Amino acid sequence: MSLPISSTIEMPILQELAATGGSDDVRFLYERLIAYFPQLNDKEVAEIKIGTNKNWRTAVQKAARMLDEKSCLRRNHGFWTLTVKGRETVENESLDFTATKPETEATSHAHIQKLLIEIGVFLGFHAAMEFEFYDVVWRETAKSPRISHIFEVQHKGNLDSAFAKLKRAYQSQRTKPFLVISSEKDFNRARQSLFREFQDIESAVTILTFVQVKKIYQNLNSIGEILPKLLEK
After folding, report:
1. Under a CB-based contact definition with an 8 Å cutoff, are residues 76 and 4 in contact?
2. What is the pLDDT of residues 148-171, one digit of tens each?
3. The whole model's pTM is what?
4. For residues 169 and 190, what is the distance between their CA atoms, to the nearest angstrom?
5. Residue 195 maps to a domain
6. What is the largest CA-CA distance in the chain?
7. Are residues 66 and 123 in the same domain?
């Protein structure tokens, strides 16, 4: 998986700085920016977290340099601060998101649950909604006592409550926990909550957006006829 180009990292940098009050040390930003790029694979994420992925640091630094040239932030020995223009850029981005919000909300909580059910079936799992108070679960078979995957879908809900459910399932059965959120805009809020309150499951939780779930479903649906043969053991 190739790393994101620097231009796509610019807005996440501004959004992260805005979320932390306007300034922060770049050492902390390297890891927090991961949440904006779900396409990063596990190896890349691990390397970024321990500071050995030099290409990621180079891309982040290049993005910051471009933002500096645009007068959106100031850099001072690794400490980055939003400028007035930078704050306005973040605010304008939020306004653009608000304008398109009705389209995002057209996808309901229940619709995403149904897509997760179908994805699970495509992949050979027994999938169920509202099982033991979880939004969606996958099990190896209908009689399997162990939950293999658990999904909590957050459209307008309490993130801490969702993480608490994921934590309970993970700690009791080493279930693979997934948080599904309505948009990439919520990644920062979700990652912050996970980091602050649920560090013990931070490395285990995968965060997906509604858009990603739809794409997964569409891709699997397009090969639905051949997929069972590919998964035969």
Report:
1. no
2. 999 999 876 678 888 888 998 898
3. 0.54
4. 18
5. yes
6. 60
7. no
